[in-house]
Amino acid sequence: MAYYRLKDNYLLRGWKKLPYAVLDKKTRRVGFVDGERFAAIQYCCGTISEECASFIPAYKDTAEELLKAGVVEKLDSPKPLNKEQEYVEYPSRFVHTALWSITGKCNYKCKHCYMSAPCAKYGEISRENCLRIIDQLAECGVQSISLTGGECLVRKDFFELVDRLVSRGVEISQIYSNGWLVNEKLLDSLAERGIHPEFNMSFDGVGQHDWIRGIDGAEEAVIRAFKLCKEKGFPTDAEFCMHKKNAHTLRESVNLLASLGCRSLKVSPVMATGEWEKNNFGEYTMSMKEAYDVWLEYIPHYYEDKKPLEIMLSGLFSSSPKRAAYAVPAQKCKVDKDASNFCMCGHARNNLYITAEGRMAPCMPLSGNDALLQKLPNLCETNLADALDDSYYMDLVNARLSAYLERNKRCAGCEWRNACLAGCRGCAMQDTGDYFGVDKGACLLFKGGYRDKVIELVKRVAPDEEFIG
Question: Which pTM value belongs to this model?
């Protein structure tokens, strides 16, 4: 007799409104299926023979398909699933990943900090509240978390939080840091716990980094941190906040980061909020058009330098050594398809941001708006499962394109409305102070012709490049 059995790293899971899923514990990927297919998968339990399960609709086809995909194994004798693999239904809607500012404090004095971390505007919540939030994340089936700040490494109880996350089975996928406190002791302590999270560190231009970070030696410190992570086997990414003082260093900075083992770089223009606005650095602010023009000038160099790392020129272009290039935002649906019932932000459907005060927000850039923050649920005071069911947070997450078009009649008549899907809500909030405001960068990309410029440029300088969008 033959028995199909899910391999040990595959777990049966479900969430409110999405009750049928298979979770790959190794990759943290979640695959949702319909009820009929899930019933067939449940019979791949290692104790019911192929013959006994044959009456289940779609069983044979599903089992053979999963066998080829390496999800199940075929055994000659019964072997039950592990306890961990058995079905669990979480008491909340599905959220895959959380980004959490575990502190609003920082050891730097960054000129562009929209959280005003140099003066610890948002402080940090207690250890007890942090542990409570971690337990809620685990109980709601959140699979992974990225830790940020402020500077997350300044928390004295940092490793207590790490240990709680590890014990509750929530993967620490990323640690955002300025690099100053990244040292051998830190990396060895993480490795001893069996984890190697990716370090995402800011790098704001060769010869320019210290100026925006407000600390002498910041550039030297982050270069040292990149080298140490490479030596210790920790993956690294970087973010580059572009302004008029450092835009000319982009090519040199990309190549330096690649030489340090950095895998990817996201480049964004500085947002004129928080400390940047407070200290009147507006003379260095770049408009979206100015940023797009700098990036169009850089793209040929990216190909001349043999695509040294994965890059995202925020709002315009992305590519990597291993995959095709595409215009950002990539065309989200066919232009001739009615997208009025699409969610305005697909990212917020699967990802959650938690502020230094413990508030839930659809994304980190929205946390710079205090008026909006006060309307959002605070996990120190409420339960995550409840807030994911009915709250102002969910009103924002569930907002549809139709609601946006009703408020913005010019967009309703735009030929690109089904492609841009209202653009980015964080950018719109910065420009207008309104969650349903217009994202000027998206207008520039589509109506302003920059998407076409990118496509034409890539076809000219890299004719063999596969291009999406």
Answer: 0.94
